[in-house]
Amino acid sequence: MAESETPLGQRAPARSDVASLVGYHSPQVDVDVRLNTNEAAEPPPPGFMSDLRQALAGMDLNRYPDRGADRLRAALGDRYGLDPDWVFCANGSNEVLQSTLLAYGGAGRSAAVFEPTYAMHSQIARITGTRLVRSTRRSDFSLHRDLLAETVEAEQPDVLFLCSPNNPTGMLDPDGLVQSALDLLEPHGGLLVVDEAYGQFAPTSAVSLLGEDQSLVVSRTFSKTWAMAGLRLGYLLGPPWCLSELEKVVLPYHLDSIKQEAGILALVYGGEMEARVQAVIAERERLTSALGELPVTVWPSQANFVLFRPETMSGTQAWQGLLDRSVLVRDFSSVAGLKDCLRVTIGTESEDDRFLVALREVLL
Q: Which of 24, 48, 157, 327 has the fewest other C-beta atoms within 10 Å?
């Protein structure tokens, strides 16, 4: 019997709240210039690849990986001046966020987000059965203490997400906002999660506010700065009393040996990666300046991408025009608060030039 003819009575139903979800997807299209998923424009340094191949040759893949990822956590701790028990590692920052909500969210608990922001905060909250509290940023996408206070006092969320630089707007939260959030949450006992997936491209970080008596954790990733999106490695920095709860909900041996070794080796190339960050920042400023000469609205960015809105046509029309010219960017036209907005990743100089030529053809 064909699948379409299978009686519905024989199909086990998913949870009703899961069945109503739409999966998170970003188009994977075969194009000349792919600038839609905020990946690093360049692969890791050749020396890193050589080191990784050598490490693989001596790896016992018939054995389970180091369950505690001790060496990787120690290496990351050294980078931030923290003990290893202040570091939690997982398969990309999305598993970091999922583990956090498994431990601190769930049935009878809530998580607050400020939209528009990274969609996976809401998605993972729903997947884990956490009640979602959604507040809307100002029309210029800024986030201020008054909105924080209104949300926290009304909802007393168990988890509060800040994303800085924010994805997809690229904007950095104002000075003092993280401390304000901590002060507002303290009477209610909520956990503040600061998502800094793009933190290395910004001038400030919440890492400096971490403390044993602070209900604050900071999420970061190897996907952007370290050019390792294909390996899926992320980490969380926070007090040991908090991270020990995450260890209870994560699956055993979840972080494979190859990924752990790659993370350790990548940290050796910190100088090269810092140089790349500065190159991306310079290219971001060049691209932003060039966009300013076209009929688009551009938002200031502290990340490795830029959000813009065409003024002469719809965002989807512009997106399709770029795709027709083999340039792929991210279309946010259908997202609430982001009508007609597109997001372009900072690529190589030649990729960005190709994008600008194509966009000029589409709009003018």
A: 24
What are the residue ranges of helices labelled H in 39-144?
46-57, 70-80, 92-104, 119-127
Please answer whether residues 258 and 59 qualify as being in contact, where contact means their C-beta atoms are separated by less than 8 angstroms. yes
Please answer whether residues 343 and 117 qualify as being in contact, where contact means their C-beta atoms are separated by less than 8 angstroms. Answer: no
The per-residue pLDDT string of the chain (364 residues; one tens digit each, 9 = 90 and over) reads 455 555 566 888 888 888 877 776 677 789 999 999 999 999 999 999 999 999 999 999 999 999 999 999 999 999 999 999 999 999 999 999 999 999 999 999 999 999 999 999 999 999 999 999 999 999 999 999 999 999 999 999 999 999 999 999 999 999 999 999 999 999 999 999 999 999 999 999 999 999 999 999 999 999 998 999 999 999 999 999 999 999 999 999 999 999 999 999 999 999 999 999 999 999 999 999 999 999 999 999 999 999 999 999 999 999 999 999 999 999 999 999 999 999 999 999 999 999 999 999 999 9
Provide the total of helices (H) and of strands (E) in the chain, helices listed first. 12, 13
Element (H, E) at 132: strand 131-136
